[in-house]
């Protein structure tokens, strides 16, 4: 029997979610922040790109045809990060995450066995996070997608402890996928907001989880970091040195920072076979999962081909292509 090929980084666009917030002043203000951070050239290109890809983001038959062309058997589908809406008040946030969870579940239900979904939680309201996670699981989703931070809160914030505990208890998947970067206008040209911003946000968020002791307190968390974990896995030596050399750096976590990488999972979307091999060296071949960022332009149209370009040993290739994800997602 041929092993499954599993793509853990694929997105769905949910117009019904944005319809909830389209007329709210907070949405307009959030769009202004996004425009400032990205710059007009990036927004123009992104607008055209997304419009061209709407069928691939919303139509299950188009999605399945694309998967077949890529040789992908299973996708783990998460909402477009544009649906986080972390600016929203509690009442609006409740509506957003429920609608997102239900719509993602409905999308995936059209292709049972091939599409599995993740929902959303309102990180800006930690008190709602456990209930939102449970709602996602009740819809048949495998977990939730989260960003690298919420306004005024890092992932190390103690207010998230009940959320980490419940995710650990339930075995829910957490997909760490940044949206936006707080370096703001420094990255507003040449799409630096994404090319530099996303890997920076991944590295910062993972560092907060490691150095604060979240991963000590919750060792069974099932967390997947998008974009190969950003800069952190290939630059983890600097974190290890600080943990060893400085009392302040080592105060919050019990072990060498690099050791925590082997408790996490990372997608393969690093756009460079040399970096992919370095990622595998840092975290282990059993901790890397195939990812495409379907169907956005910063993804890859050929995730299996990109993996093949790294020239991995056959056992590692098969593990990353789908063996690791099949075990993590409990697929048969």
TrEMBL record:
User: Which parts pass through the membrane?
Assistant: none
| Record keywords, A-Z | Lyase
What is the annotated signal peptide range for this record? Answer: none
Q: Which Pfam families match?
A: Amidohydro_2
Residues covered by the Amidohydrolase-related domain: 6-331
The keyword Glycoprotein is assigned to this record: no
What InterPro entries does the annotation carry? ACMSD, Amidohydro-rel, Metal_Hydrolase
PANTHER family membership: 2-AMINO-3-CARBOXYLMUCONATE-6-SEMIALDEHYDE DECARBOXYLASE, ISO-OROTATE DECARBOXYLASE (EUROFUNG)
What is the protein's given name?
Amidohydrolase family protein
The taxonomy runs: Bacteria, Bacillati, Actinomycetota, Actinomycetes, Kitasatosporales
């Amino acid at each position: 029997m041929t092993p499954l090929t599993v793509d853990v980084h694929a997105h769905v666009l949910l117009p019904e979610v944005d319809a909830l917030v389209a007329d709210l002043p907070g949405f307009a203000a959030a769009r202004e922040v996004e425009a400032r951070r990205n710059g007009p050239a990036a927004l123009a290109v992104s607008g055209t790109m997304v419009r061209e890809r709407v069928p691939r983001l919303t139509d299950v038959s188009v999605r399945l045809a694309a998967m077949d062309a890529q040789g992908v058997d299973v996708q783990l589908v998460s909402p477009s990060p544009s649906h986080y809406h972390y600016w929203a008040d509690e009442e609006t946030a409740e509506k957003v995450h429920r609608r997102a969870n239900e719509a993602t579940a409905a999308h995936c239900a059209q292709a049972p066995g091939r599409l599995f979904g993740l929902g959303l939680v309102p990180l800006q309201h930690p008190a709602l996070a456990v209930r939102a996670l449970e709602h996602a699981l009740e819809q048949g989703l495998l977990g939730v997608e989260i960003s690298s931070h919420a306004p005024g809160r890092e992932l190390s914030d103690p207010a998230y402890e009940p959320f980490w505990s419940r995710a650990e208890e339930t075995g829910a998947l957490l997909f760490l996928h940044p949206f936006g970067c707080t370096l703001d206008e420094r990255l507003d040209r040449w799409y630096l907001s994404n090319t530099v911003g996303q890997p920076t946000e991944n590295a910062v968020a993972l560092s907060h989880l490691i150095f604060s002791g979240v991963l000590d307190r919750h060792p069974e968390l099932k967390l997947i970091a998008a974009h190969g974990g950003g800069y952190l896995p290939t630059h983890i030596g600097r974190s290890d040195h600080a943990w060893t050399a400085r009392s302040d750096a080592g105060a919050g976590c019990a072990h060498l920072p690099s050791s925590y990488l082997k408790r996490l999972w990372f997608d393969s979307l690093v756009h460079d076979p040399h970096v992919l091999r370095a990622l595998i060296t840092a975290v282990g071949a059993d901790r890397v999962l195939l990812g495409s960022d379907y169907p956005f332009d910063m993804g890859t149209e050929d995730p299996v081909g990109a993996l093949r370009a790294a020239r991995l040993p056959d056992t590692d290739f098969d593990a990353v292509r789908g063996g690791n994800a099949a075990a993590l997602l409990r697929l048969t």
